[in-house]
Write a structure and sequence with these properties.
eight-stranded mixed β-sheet, alpha/beta, 12 strands, Rossmann fold, 302 residues, two-stranded antiparallel ribbon, 10 helices
């Protein structure tokens, strides 16, 4: 027990994620990997969604892919690992809720279609900022994997912050069972180049690259739903072919996505028949197919 701490068991403390006492890290670091392995053994597929740079709509894509998976009948969880800018709770309409804890672990918040949601956003007050450096972020991401009671799931979607910072590195270290990575980009040569560099980290870690999604590819008219190209840059599909990254699909720019996000209304549920929703469903189907192909290839090589 540390000065100022009155709990003998860290895993029963309501301030578990906020705690920075050294004894917490010393106590749990040695067994964390075993706990993560135990939690993850109950989850069939672990999928990370990444981007090379910010502003490409990665979190919006992550939330709607999780929704699309749940819409198909899968049991789904989503981890918002962007500690400095958590937005998954808002995107899924569960903002402002608080996590609870029991002997089984941290209880995730239940979102639409039964999605289990974990995010730093559930631990912050409105407008509160997080100023964390490597060690604190390392501990928090490990806790999100080791201490949260996800139960049995078909999919765990992990929304990573842009780039190749400590959160991305820590995930690769803490979760060697990661089944694959999906990258999100936009129709921009700069964005393509940055995400290509970022994917090299996952290749080095021998994590399968399931494919790339190009967001904001064309404009979806709110009146007639016609999609019109608005960028003259090389398309994501052309770039993917040149770099031999699997192509998963593109999503048009639609102002109704922004409106739904601001209102906390899950876009793909509120607008199931719009072009962007249909594209997201198609992309989700492609992700499932890519992962099935990887699984079949692994089995055949045994």
């Amino acid at each position: 027990m540390e000065f100022g701490c009155y709990h003998r068991r860290c895993d029963e403390c309501s301030r578990y994620f906020e705690c920075s006492f050294p004894s917490k890290q010393n106590r749990f670091e040695g067994v964390r990997q075993d706990k993560i392995a135990g939690r993850m053994s109950l989850i069939k597929h672990k999928l990370a969604i990444v981007s090379g740079k910010g502003g490409v709509g990665k979190s919006t894509v992550s939330a709607n892919i999780a929704l699309s998976l749940a819409y198909r009948g899968y049991r789904v969880g989503i981890v918002d690992s962007d500690f400095h800018g958590p937005c998954i709770p808002k995107l899924l309409g569960v903002n402002g809720q608080r996590l609870t804890i029991s002997r089984k672990g941290i209880h995730p918040i239940e979102g639409p279609l039964g999605i289990k949601v974990i995010s730093m956003g559930f631990l912050l007050e409105e407008g509160e900022a997080v100023s964390w450096f490597h060690d604190l972020k390392k501990g928090a991401l490990g806790d999100f994997l080791a201490e949260v009671d996800y139960g049995s799931l078909d999919w765990l979607v992990i929304d990573l912050p842009p780039g190749t910072g400590s959160e991305n590195y820590n995930l690769l270290r803490d979760l060697p069972q990661l089944d694959g990575v999906v990258a999100v980009t936009i129709p921009s040569q700069l964005s393509h180049q940055i995400v290509e560099r970022g994917l090299s980290l996952y290749r080095q870690a021998d994590v399968p690259i399931l494919g790339v999604i190009e967001n904001m590819a064309g404009f979806s008219c709110p009146d007639c739903n016609t999609v019109t190209p608005i960028f003259s840059e090389k398309t994501g599909q052309e770039w993917a072919q040149e770099t031999q990254v699997p192509w998963l699909g593109d999503i048009p720019l639609d102002e109704r996505i922004s409106s739904a996000s601001d209102s906390g209304l899950p876009f793909i549920i509120e607008n199931p028949d719009l072009p962007a929703s249909l594209k997201l469903k198609e992309i989700t189907k492609n992700i499932i197919s890519r992962l099935d192909m990887k699984t079949d290839a692994s089995v055949s090589s045994i």
